[in-house]
Amino acid sequence: MPEPYDGNIASRQDRSPFLDPPERGSEVLLPLLQPLPSIGVVLGSGLGGFLEEIEGMKAIPLSSLPGFPEPTTEGHTGKICWGQVADRTILVMAGRYHYYEGYTMTEIAYPIRLMYSLGIRRVILTCVSGGIGEDLKVGEVVLVSDHLNLMGNNPLLGIGDSRERSRFVDLSSAYDEELLRLAEGVARSARIPHRRGVLAAMAGPCYETPSEVRMLKRLGADIVSMSVVPEVIMAAYLGMKVLCLSLVTNLHLPGCRSGRRKRLHHAEVLSCAEKYGGRVRRLLREVLAKWPDGKGQRV
Q: Using CA atoms, how far apart are residues 240 and 234, in angstroms rounded to an integer?
């Protein structure tokens, strides 16, 4: 468990478990990856069942890579896996790092930088979320089309401009429209309850207060989560295409206004992810089967 960030960059780097650059991790993985993966996947809390879809899967602990500690949140197995799904070679992060665990934003986005250093330019992010929209239902899959970064930080802070890219990233198309349409078509065919929506990212680890829920509704959020957005921002900075799928595992009901709503527990979130995670699993499998190639054609 990392020590809380005290704002001192130099002292933080001295004790950071992420001191090694992303390229160190790729040096460990490259000799193991044959063929090289073309798509990266990050699995959210309780969504590890997707690993059963991977043919010829190989895995190593995340902590065996330079700079990668084990995730501390229950429901994140802490493995990096690779293999074949629908004739696609993919790399899967079975677990992620969160801001509330004490890591910096840059460190949270480290897995995305690792994927990029391995040549991956397309990534599917998954997470669980709380529903804010009035007619959302538990078990529904939200195809994230936009976000509200309310975490109070950004993984690009301190990153300088280079010849290749600028820190002033345009996030107006951070979520790839072609991939959103693909996921919508797959979800319709599979009769998976789904919709597009806006994800609000909060720092956590506390669940939202009734006043915060009302604020998020007024800001236009449909769901709220404690992850994903730092990864999306880093992916956009690196020019990667992103698809984000979020499983609604609990609802912020109107009764929260009077304080009479059911208490939320992480165990409930994991239980719901286990119950409805098959929808995300199937959606991932079918999306990968119909994933467009680099020329925009489906294979």
A: 9
Q: Does residue 61 or residue 245 have the better pLDDT?
A: 245
Quick check: 59 and 32 in contact, CB under 8 A? no
Tokens of 10: 């130099």
**How do the domains of the chain map onto residue ranges?**
9-289
Q: 0.85 cut: is pTM over it?
A: yes
Among the listed residues 196, 176, 28, 230, the one whose alpha carbon sits nearest the alpha carbon of residue 114: 28
Q: What is the DSSP string of 128-158?
A: EEEE-STT--TTPEEEEEEEEE-SS--TTTT
Considering only CA atoms, which of 243, 240, 203, 281 is closest in space to residue 114? 240
Read off the pLDDT of residues 62-95 as tens digits, 9 standing for 90 and up: 888 887 777 776 655 788 999 999 999 999 999 8
Domain with residues 9-289, CATH architecture: 3-Layer(aba) Sandwich (3.40)
Give Cα 66 distance to the centre of its chain. Answer: 21
- Going by the DSSP 8-state scheme, the letter that residue 96 receives in this structure is -
